[in-house]
Amino acid sequence: MKKTMNVLALLGSLAMVSHAACAEIPSALCSKTLPDQAALEAALKAAQAQDNGGFALNMWGTIVDRDGIVCAVAMTGAGRGGQWPGSRVISAQKANTANAFSLHGLALSTANLYSAVQPGGSLFGLQESNPVNVAAAYKGPSKDYGRAIDPLVGEKIGGVNVFGGGLALYDSTGKLLGGIGVSGDSSCADHNIAWRTRLALNLDHVPGGVNPTHADDNIVYDISGGASASGWGHPVCSDAAKAIAEGFAKAGNR
Questions:
Q1: E strands of the chain, at which residues?
Q2: CATH topology of domain 32-246
Q3: Is residue 68 within 8 Å of residue 157, measured between CB atoms?
Q4: Model-level pTM?
Q5: pLDDT, tens digit (0-9, with 9 covering 90-100), for 141-172
Q6: Could you give the 3-state DSSP secondary structure of residue 169?
Q7: Residue 247: Cβ within 10 Å count
């Protein structure tokens, strides 16, 4: 009997070790050069606290690596109910989109995709191309959402989002590391908050983009009469949000 109990105790210990090892796997999958959950949360809160031309709502933020694996999820509210629950997955979807459709020489923000995916646009149908991984999106206990142990961490979320709030992440050498997505306000405010969060994380060294100057991946406001002059335009949510975005310095300029 004693021998049996010792064996069971040993098996229990091994199970605990195995569980602990598995819990460490997600962080090991992500690049050491990407911000951790604490850094993301601090930068996101600082960006959200500014006037972004929206409703001043709390936000979700997600970072994915170059393989689309979720590395960090954060929120600005005191608890998960302090921001739109649906925006957690949307923020991850935006991060995935910006990473998935950016390259080392050309960045595409989710805001840049709005007009391109409309009927008759150059990328019509793109939003249906990479479905969200539903099993990953809703796994695990809700109490862990927005924390370092968010169940999304270590998962490939997938998904394509085509309005403001998702940006590719480039380090100071111009290397593409992944993407960031934020959600919880108007899409235009989301873009502004994502822009400021990326700047604070020093991951905004964008090599070029599709805006009229081809300088970076800033949102483009050139829709008139229902059509975008450049083909990459985004609707205006508010004059304030538009003015803020148009006042941003080129990404990477410090």
A1: 60-65, 70-75, 166-170, 176-183, 223-224, 227-228
A2: Beta-Lactamase (3.30.450)
A3: yes
A4: 0.89
A5: 999 999 999 999 999 999 999 999 999 999 99
A6: strand
A7: 8
